[in-house]
């Protein structure tokens, strides 16, 4: 009995009752933590303080994940896991209803929502069927993937293709991952259904392109030519202009792609000019000012301007190319937005160094396509004539 009383007293000394303001302060410490030994020691103390608070600290802690730095997220995850483990070992249940509501709240951090979901799932296998079917259009790509996977499994188990088609269509509406889109498209096309993968992902298939310009010895990447000179002078590219190219005069010409994944293949559609660079432009009409992601893939060096502002560049040749290889967050204005893309090819002759191509799409942060407004004035990139 004496040992039991002593143990209880020690626990009381080490883990005192933690007031709400103490919890708030501990979370503030974690949100402001910086790399370094001093901050790490303070952060460890804050984690222990939150652990002492028990389950009452869980929701405030989880809400603190929003817009947190990667370092803060690591500390907060550690605190959450310590609290959850301590509560479970002590035989106390986590606040299931409140935590499920947190998982459903799309305004919260996707990472925190997933962390809670995986924690609850360990002791409640039924949570998957309760939550995931409603997450087909969730703000978290990870939850979307789960919802799409459930529909694919349900559809593929049906022997009747006609009955499976609506399920595949429903799954397609929420799919943002390439492998799932391919699986669904294959199944639908096998059932003689039309599928527009290009539109589904929001690829930009129609461009005006001009070149080649000189990139011998890789000098062209840092050298402004043709329409880039216009951009540097704060002017829009002149679509009627004629420029001095690598070997001759060059003018804008239309180029388009019917590839499912929006690949514009310069090497196959025009010519694989070695030691060259090309410029391509298109427009995208927005019905409002909005934050979007421009996602692209290319094995070549490149620069991208949006409305005359350089938003990203990458000087690297012949690396692997894949869907959404680069993600560039930008703010588009209401009305017509002009994209100018510079793509460079070097002089390597190996078989693996012959690709000269790009794919560009516009989407939101989940990867869902954003389509241009049809009511906003735009440029017709097929002809280069302003409408």
Structure description:
- The protein is an alpha+beta fold and 387 residues long.
- It folds into 3 domains: 2-124, no CATH class; 141-195; 201-386, Jelly Rolls (Sandwich).
- It has 14 helices and 14 strands.
- It has helices at 2-14, 20-31, 37-53, 58-63, 70-89, 96-104, 110-121, 127-131, 141-156, 161-174, 178-190, 197-201, 227-232, 266-269, and strands at 206-214, 242-244, 249-251, 253-256, 264-265, 276-286, 290-297, 301-306, 309-314, 326-332, 335-345, 357-363, 379-380, 385-386.
- Strands 4-1-6-11-8-9 form a 6-stranded antiparallel sheet. It has a 4-stranded antiparallel sheet with strand order 5-12-7-10.
- Helix 6 crosses helix 7 (110-121).
- The chain is globular.
- The model is unreliable at 1-20 and 377-387 (pLDDT under 50).
């Amino acid at each position: 009995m004496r040992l039991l009383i002593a143990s209880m007293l020690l626990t009381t000394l080490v883990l005192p009752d933690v007031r709400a303001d103490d919890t708030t302060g501990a979370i503030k410490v974690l949100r402001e933590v910086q790399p370094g030994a001093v901050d790490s020691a303070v952060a460890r103390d804050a984690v222990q303080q939150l652990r002492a608070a028990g389950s009452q600290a869980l929701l405030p802690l989880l809400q603190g994940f929003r817009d947190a730095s990667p370092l803060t997220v690591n500390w907060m995850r550690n605190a959450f896991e310590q609290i959850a483990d301590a509560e479970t070992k002590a035989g106390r249940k986590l606040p299931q209803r409140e935590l499920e509501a947190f998982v459903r709240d799309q305004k919260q951090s996707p990472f925190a929502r997933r962390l809670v979901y995986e924690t609850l799932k360990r002791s409640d296998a039924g949570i998957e069927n309760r939550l995931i079917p409603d997450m087909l259009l969730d703000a978290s790509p990870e939850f979307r993937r789960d919802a799409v996977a459930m529909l694919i499994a349900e559809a593929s188990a049906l022997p009747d293709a006609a009955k499976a088609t609506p399920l595949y269509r429903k799954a397609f509406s929420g799919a943002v991952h390439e492998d799932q889109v391919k699986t669904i498209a294959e199944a639908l096309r096998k059932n003689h259904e039309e599928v527009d993968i290009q539109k589904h992902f929001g690829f930009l298939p129609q461009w005006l392109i001009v070149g080649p310009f000189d990139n011998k010895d890789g000098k062209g990447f840092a050298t402004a030519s043709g329409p880039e000179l216009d951009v540097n002078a704060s002017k829009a590219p002149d679509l009627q202009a004629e420029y001095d190219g690598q070997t001759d005069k060059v003018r804008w010409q239309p180029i388009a792609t019917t590839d499912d994944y929006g690949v514009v293949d310069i090497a196959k559609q025009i010519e694989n000019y070695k030691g060259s660079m090309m410029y391509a432009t298109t427009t995208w009409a927005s019905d409002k000012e909005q934050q979007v992601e421009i996602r692209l893939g290319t094995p070549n060096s490149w620069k991208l301007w949006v409305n005359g502002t350089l938003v990203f560049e990458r000087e690297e040749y012949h690396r692997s190319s894949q869907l959404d290889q680069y993600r560039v967050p930008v703010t588009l204005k209401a009305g017509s937005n002009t994209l100018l893309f510079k793509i460079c090819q070097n002089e390597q002759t190996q078989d693996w160094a012959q690709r000269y191509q790009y794919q560009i799409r516009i989407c939101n942060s989940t990867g869902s396509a954003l389509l241009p407004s049809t009511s906003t004035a735009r440029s017709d990139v097929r002809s280069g004539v302003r409408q």
